[in-house]
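To whoever is on call:

I kicked off a structure prediction for a single chain this morning and the downstream step that reads the tokens threw a length-mismatch warning. I double-checked the sequence; it's 298 residues and nothing unusual in it as far as I can see. Pasting both halves so you can look.
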Amino acid sequence: MAEVTLEVTRRERSGKEYAKKLRQDNKIPAVVYGGHKEPVAITVERKAVSDLIQKSDHGIRSIFLLKMSGTDQQRHAMIKDMQMDPISRRMTHIDFVRVVMDEVVRVTVPVHLTGSSIGVKEGGILDWQMRDLHVECLPNAIPGLTITPVHSEPFVLVMSPDHTLARVKKLSLASFSKEAFVAYGQRWAPEFYETWVDICARASFRPRIVQETAEMDTLLALVSADIGVAIMPEGLARRSNRALTIKALPASAGQSQMAIAVAKTHNNPLLNNLISLATEVGKKQTGRSSKSDRITYK
């Protein structure tokens, strides 16, 4: 298990005004509890938390060393709960729980579905109620993952053919600053969410999100119904059979990376063959330029 350290500072003050000032300084009020000790109020840098989630083996569910700034105190911990601002979608408060390495922990892992049901293929929408599973295990028994990149493709902006801007040839992303957006929820894909929001930020606006969903097909249905526009990888938009108008984003918007993740401890030759095949297919597809009308940032 990779050891990642998060440095925090003891928080001596409390109250709404003080918490507001911390957030304005890109700091997050937090608390650490559990481990047979009393709770302690702390402060953590927003960027440090984002970096930790990206670098750790299990993202937001990773176990890491929580180090108190200016002291030798450090304990294994994990993120128990994270509160988000409903409008800006920025972290506003974090609960950390101390982890005792020889005691069982209860963690939540996401459910990932594979394949397509007959109902979806015939135009239906898949909806399932249990999106997370609770697992009890020793902290160091949570398996690590090996992630192999296999394909990359550009981001595009999609809208209904009935949208007022759908037939406009020369567009800028800034033209959509007042438009409604629909989004694949931050809870289910935080890195993807931050990526497309950052694309909008380069055009000097924050998207007005009117609805979030946990299903990409539902997202495309909302776009097709002209509930809002969306930014997504080009392949997802082109594989849909729904009525959509697709506009290519500037090349500087970057690429969506697709990968295969498997347990580090796996010993299955079929998985290795699958990764090799997917990598070869991905190489042939990666880098193909979009045939859609291209829009600028401003």
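Update from on-call: the warning came from a stale cache, not from the record. Cleared it. Sanity check on the structure: The chain has a mean pLDDT of 81.
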